[in-house]
Amino acid sequence: MPTRGAETPTLPGKDASGEVAPSQTSGMRKWIRQGARNPGLLAGILLLLPFLLFALLPTVFATHDPIKTSIRELYVPPSTEHFFGTDELGRDVYSRVVHGARISLASASLIIGIACVIGVVLGTIAGYWGGWSDRVIMTLVDLVLAFPSLILALAVSAALGPGLRSAIIAAAAVWWPVYARLLRGLTMQLAEMEFVTAARAMGASAPAIILRHILPNAVYAIIVRISIDLGLAVLLLASLSFIGLGASAPTPEWGAMVAWGRLYFLTEWWIGGFPALAITLVVVAITMVGDGLNELRTIA
Predict the structure, then answer these.
(1) For residues 226, 229, 235 and 239, what is the CA-based torsion angle, rounded to 10 degrees?
(2) What percent of the chain has pLDDT over 70?
(3) How far is CA 298 from the centre of its chain?
(4) End-to-end C-alpha distance for the chain, whole angstroms
(5) 0.70 exceeded by the pTM?
(6) How confident is the model over 245-259, as pLDDT tens digits?
(7) Nearest to 242, CA basis, from 226, 227, 263
(8) Is residue 131 a contact partner of residue 138, using CB atoms and an 8 Å limit?
(9) What is the DSSP letter of 7?
(10) Would you call 88 exposed, middle or buried from its count of C-beta atoms within 10 A (0-12, 13-18, 19+)?
């Protein structure tokens, strides 16, 4: 779930023209070297890498058809043939977890992507022009943030109807204010800097200033925020699917698999246990990557 506030990150150095200063290049190299020495960041990347490969090449890593049923192989425990066992319909749990990586990671990326685009546009408008546009946009932001994220997402998803598309729209609808607030603060800070003042004095239009000077300076802060939010988006999507407002059967989505597997947890624990483990590992890995990037944000 989206956090309620976003600290404005330290901005990288620029020269008077608003272009990357010469020292910025060496600073980026230093940032890369520091990142290579960050054990948390490296551990997060290594932990996340298998799931990224699953998402990119599910047919390569899956050993069975994820939706094919087999009456002869119901509730088979983990073995060399079925690494994670089979479920109540004889489907291979490992293959479903592998294919579920694409659904969960792609859906989470889409959620954050939609929220980021809406939030960046509205936040930049509010921060640069101010006035009535700022008041209207920030009033809407405060209105959305006034409700608990999960409750609001449940309401939107229920109104749209069960389904993965509805869950994505609902999650994005409660997430964009985080990026709007972040970009508003960054834009207000950048608009007062000398290189923006110089560009304005040289006759640059507002869209040109935003595209050439403000957004390039805010990219790193956005990337850090995205890296932190992706894990939360995976968790929110799984939560919506768990209660029946996300992906529907037979789609191999992790949250839906955990929801069905809970009915057999005391006897066939692997049905819901391995999808739950996958969610945990992905959220932990993405959080570690986000925290690692957040620690490095002042180096570049």
Answers:
(1) -100
(2) 87
(3) 22
(4) 29
(5) yes
(6) 888 878 899 999 999
(7) 263
(8) no
(9) -
(10) middle
